[in-house]
Design a protein that fits this description.
Layout (H helix, E strand, L loop, with lengths): L6 H9 L11 H19 L5 E5 L7 H7 L4 E6 L2 H11 L1 E3 L14 E5 L9 H13 L1 E6 L21 H10 L3 E4 L2 E3 L15
Parallel strand pairs: 1-2, 1-4, 2-3, 4-5
Antiparallel strand pairs: 5-7, 6-7
Length: 202
């Protein structure tokens, strides 16, 4: 049976009371990620963020903590889960799309902050390669690309996890003009040349 990103899936990994606040789906952990990503984007843009694009957004859990920090920011999410989009699409501005669709899909202007969290290590290589060009084109500032590799001691959902080396992702991100900032953060091609030598990990 293929993996289903349905209500039961999100309940188990994101809302299970047994996970508590500090676990994978915990609110405190997510709030720290959001604060990190927003601060990095604003540091490099030298202004408050105005737009956020979340690819592989699931139920859109990033939206509320983002808007708590920046109420005027425009949030737009895409996910392949029909359940998530049907349930939360209207209220959270979520739309249906697979990662590979971003080979051609350009739904908005390049975003100040692009999010693709906990997605790419579940994709087959063909779909990953198809969608990466879109991520680079749609990142007008900083991208938070939370991705895990075979070198990591991962926790949580290992069903369908692709045990690729970190080098696999580094090479592909770099090929699309993304520069490593550390902590899953990547500088978008639009800001190339605007950093000091030690601000990037390359």
């Amino acid at each position: 049976m293929s993996k289903q990103y349905d209500r039961d899936y999100f309940q188990r990994w994101y809302r299970d009371p047994a996970l508590k606040d500090e676990a994978i789906g915990g609110a405190a952990r997510l709030a720290r990620k959001v604060a990190l990503a927003v601060a990095a984007a604003e540091y490099h843009l030298e202004r408050p963020i105005r737009s956020v694009l979340d690819i592989g957004c699931g139920e859109g859990p990033w939206r509320a903590p983002l808007l708590k920090l920046r109420p005027r920011a425009q949030y737009l999410g895409f996910d392949a889960s029909q359940y998530a989009v049907a349930r939360f699409g209207r209220t959270r501005n979520l739309h249906l799309a697979r990662f590979g669709d971003f080979e051609f899909l350009r739904p908005c202007a390049p975003a100040d902050l692009l999010i693709c969290s906990d997605v790419m290590h579940y994709l087959d290589t063909r779909e990953l390669d198809r969608g990466l060009s879109g991520l680079a084109d749609l990142c007008g500032g900083v991208a938070f690309l939370e991705t895990f590799t075979r070198e990591d001691g991962i926790e949580g959902d290992t069903d369908g996890f692709k045990r690729r080396p970190a080098k696999f992702y580094r090479e592909r991100f770099a090929a699309h003009g993304l520069q490593a900032l550390g902590s899953h953060l990547w500088l978008g091609p639009a800001l190339d040349g605007g950093t000091a030598a030690l601000e990037t990990a390359g």
